[in-house]
Amino acid sequence: MSQWHQRILGSFTADLSRLWVACDPDGVLLDEKLLSELRARGFEVMGYDDPFGFRAEYEERYRAAWDANEQPPSPALIVHLRHDNANDLPWDIVHNARPAVRLNLAELFPKLAYSAVRQVEPEQLEILFDAHQTELQSARGETESKDFILEHVYQLTPRSIRAPVDFWREVLRLHFGGRALPEPFAEHVAAILHGRGLLVGHSVAEWLSSRSALMRVVQDAWYLYLEKLKLEGRRMSEPDPPPFGVSEIGTAIEIPFDHTDVRAIVDSMFLDGSLHPLAVSDVPTAMPGWIKAGIVEDVWSQFALVEKGIEALATAVPDTDAPHKLWGDFARRYGEMLSRVHELPGKNAGERMVAIRERIKAIQVLTDERLQAWIAAGHYADLILQPAIKGPVMVHHVPRFLRQRRSAGEAKVALLVFDGLAFDQWVRIREHLIANQQPLAFDESTAFAWLPTVTSVSRQALFSGLRPREFDDSIDHTNKEESLWKAFWQNEGGIASSEVMYQRALHQVEQLDTLEVDIASRKPKVLGLVIDEVDERLHKERSKEDVALWIGRWLGTGFVERLFAFLLSEGFSIYVTADHGNVDAVGVGRPNQGVIAETRGERVRVYRSDPLRAESAMAYPGTVALDIAGLPANFKPLFAGGRTAFVPNGDQVVVHGGVSVEELVVPFVRVSDVNGLNEF
After folding, report:
1. pLDDT in tens, 500-552
2. Which of 77, 559, 588, 624 has the most other CB atoms within 10 Å of its CB?
3. What angle do CA 5, 10, 15 make, to 5 degrees?
4. Confidence band of 33 (pLDDT split at 50, 70, 90)
5. Are residues 244 and 166 part of one domain?
6. Residue 82, SS3?
7. Which of 421, 327, 431 is nearest to 377 (CA)?
């Protein structure tokens, strides 16, 4: 166990008390490793964000058991406060709990500036603490603290960057490893480089802190590089001519792709779908071999690129104790790859296409097994507690994140929920927009849907900002969705109901005429829209490949680009997400007992008692019973096993409701105008 874990966990001894209070304004205790270790020691951490929700859960799950001398869910409960004042808790909690444990980064890292330490991600504090204990002899100011953190946490020493090649090597390394710099550190690095005359006039801070911004630059720089090598071709999923690639000072950005360190990382980015290759008709024999990762000469080289990407993906499946960010990154990579596979010309590919599909199935089997084990181990439950400051971890965090964005200066926000949209299908939408020369930027991340992955559960959580146990009275339908959306913004955002809009069942261009008039006349500050074309269509198709083809035809109507263009012209910051994704599945028959109102969620059945669920599980041996934290106590899901569904035996369907990366991890994307027309 690390020094960091010893320091934090040393404050909690299970045999001392059954009720604890943690005052934790910096979210120290929410590190997933710490939560897992606490759970292994017999502790459960329960947040006190909503006093009414907390009281209901506390009374039901702990107080009732203690009063009846029965065993509660865990031997000890930690009530977690996101501030320093334990007096905000009810008297009975304070009276019966041990004196509050106080966790504060300023006290835990006394030799470093608090303003710098608080920017470090919780999962990196373990590394920083070890360095703080062993490497520091005296206190550091803010600037020196940033230098220290950059060196020991991000392995970046900006003063050693002496040439552009050094910068490109380091920034690509950071983003390929999923280690974008927090904005204050990125600005610090940019100031140092600009002060030494390096990359003056370029958006260095943005490239260091935003993966999407960097990828735009690298993509176009790659095309420029190939052009100088006299390689001409068709840009795959990119506009021509490009809207990106010219800096603020009016010159094209050149990246030293031929440098050994740079090209190794770029090669991997082509394989995982982060960068698009150039489609060319002929490659001179004298061309360096390493360039082939970024070009597609014919259909068979397109196959080769996909095959290499699949093999790289197979080695990246997260372990059963992996942090949620690894699962999110894997879901993104998997979605990019699946989208590429759907674009392959399968009709004439024969055995090669069959081999690709079999390899993907093998990855799916391994991924599903590990994801189910990850959930069963309690890691999914830990996500409920995660802060939404830097982005929503679960879909019910989305409203609070948008509220923070409004506080940061985004006066008007629009949430576009594409019902049932898996990440691979989002890729199809994104590439369509790019290919049609829309000057848009996409800041992509992921969020976890609620289990079971059905609309009445996960979409209602998304719009309400609540856990499903907090809307038990409407968990089997979505009729209260609009009122819950408006209630959140009234209660937590301080916005009048008249300034909040909600509209569902959008998918046709003709509907936009009325929508645009309504928005222009009502002038809402907050907008929630449900686009249901994907969910409506997937239940009519036999495979996700067919769904991808249909999405392509639907995109041809111009609905998406018109909607985005209008919202940007009205000054909205656009956020795109989904309530759940979808998978290919094969039917195993329909259980007679248990039904959920969302009948198209054919990957799950919900029961009101354990005996009834157990009875159905006996009849279907491949099913999986998981108890999901945050669901009502009498809401017992039984999930179809593997890639199966509760439909007639042998039927090939596209469905949702179950436990898979494609269903559970959804896109969360900020869409903005490249020209900054909707920037704050």
Report:
1. 999 999 999 999 999 999 999 999 999 999 999 999 999 899 999 999 999 99
2. 77
3. 130
4. very high
5. yes
6. coil
7. 327
- Assess contact for 446 and 335: CB atoms under 8 A: no
Q: What token pair was written down for 357?
A: 């599909």
| Side chain identity at residue 40, one-letter code | A
Q: How confident is the model at residue 494 (pLDDT cuts 50, 70, 90)?
A: very high
Q: What is the DSSP string of 640-679?
A: PPTTEESSSTT-EEEE-SSSSHHHHEEEEEEEEETT-TT-
The residue among 297, 313, 334 that closes a domain is 297
H/E run at residue 65: helix 64-67
Q: Is 31 found in the same domain as 65?
A: yes
Give backbone dihedrals phi and psi of 195, rounded to 5 degrees, phi first.
-65, -25
In whole angstroms, give the CA distance from residue 183 to residue 159: 18
Average pLDDT over residues 161-172: 96
Distance CA 211, CA 442 (A): 10
Structure tokens at 548: 């991808």
pLDDT reading at 638 higher than 70: yes
Measure the CA–CA gap between 175 and 170, rounded to whole angstroms: 9
Listing from the earlier edge strand, what are the strands of the sheet with 665-673? Answer: 440-448, 665-673, 573-577, 413-418, 526-531, 500-506
**Chain Cα centroid distance, residue 220:** 26
pLDDT in the model for residue 81: 96
Does one domain contain both 428 and 483? yes
Does 126 reside within a domain?
no
274 burial type by CB count under 10 A (0-12 exposed, 13-18 middle, 19+ buried): buried
